[in-house]
Amino acid sequence: MKHARWILALVLTAAAALSAVAPSAMADAARIKDIASLQSGRDNQLIGYGLVVGLQGSGDSLRSSPFTDQSMRAMLQNLGISTQGGQSNAKNVAAVMVTANLPPFASPGSRLDVSVSSLGDATSLRGGTLVMTSLSGADGQIYAVAQGAVIVSGFSAQGEAATLTEGVTTAGRVPNGAIIERELPSRFKDAVNLVLQLRNPDFSTAVRMADAVNVFAGQRYGGPIAEARDSQEVIIAKPKAADLTRLMAEVENLVVQTDTPAKVVINERTGTIVIGADVRVSRVAVSYGTLTVQVTETPQVIQPEPFSRGVTAVQPETDIMAMKEGGPVAILDGPDLRTLVAGLNNIGVKPDGIIAILQGIKSAGALQAELVLQ
């Protein structure tokens, strides 16, 4: 019984020690696939010009958008329909720009989503159908063809005296609306090495990634194969006896301790403040006070005497009141994130005040972090 209690106490002690150490040790650990991307595996942007038909009177007015009329006539001529005659007044067609991202290693026949955005004065694309539109890359080559029903999330309702609009009705998506017709010229298997690019460039993370790959390669292939070129790129040479696809699958699941510089991101428009975990504040005293000025206009109407020839006059009267609220002097000393946040909360100011305080601390040289203003 004593032996069992001793084992239980040992287990609880080990669990407590692990819970105290493991979160800090593993909080910044991540797989390589989550922090880096393959250079040859990037997306390619596609763009095209097309027409959306079948709209319920919410399309382009052909007089205000002459390119829509020209495109509609050219499409009908390609279908063998004569377009000679007067100009049509129908508003069931809208000219749109079609965009999509061609994923890496995409093969002909696979499908992808496309985004459709109005180019003219159409008021809504709801209920429309995108007709066959070719999508080209930066090299001018056609890589996909898109067609299908346009899905619009917003809606608009209009009456004689009121209009209700929610969301954007002039843009939508065609899920799986594009079929890939041409594959990219580069082949993954033809590469002689792998180039991994960090999404958040950092020299420490790049070196740790190269070290993790070399430890794995030393056990699997008998020697190092990775080298950190700079803060963003890590080059992995392909061993002679290795398959490139299998090598990438094994490397991307390795765990690396990531590291990022200390930053404080401030968005003054929305009052958003994001403070990184490694932000430190040297010992500094802070006092924050707000000044409120209230201007009140109470004009007085002065009436003339009865049976007089005077006129009614308005005499302006302005009351200006200034109120200044001075906060107490607080001492901030942020050796860690929790202490820093607690110190800022103790001052009792709103986010706009915290933004001003952080900017003042940075100007005083006490904020040991990069201040990013958005």
Describe this structure in words.
The protein has 374 residues and is of the alpha+beta class. It has 3 domains: 137 residues, no CATH class; 71 residues, Alpha-Beta Plaits, CATH 3.30.70; 86 residues, no CATH class. The strands form 8 sheets. A 6-stranded antiparallel barrel has the order 3-4-5-10-7-6. The protein has a 4-stranded antiparallel beta sheet with strand order 2-11-13-12. A hairpin with a 4-residue loop joins strand 15 and strand 16. The longest helix has 25 residues. The basal body constitutes a major portion of the flagellar organelle and consists of four rings (L,P,S, and M) mounted on a central rod. Keywords: Bacterial flagellum, Cell projection, Cilium, Flagellum, Periplasm, Signal. It holds the Pfam family FlgI. One of its GO terms (cellular component) is outer membrane-bounded periplasmic space. Assembles around the rod to form the L-ring and probably protects the motor/basal body from shearing forces during rotation.
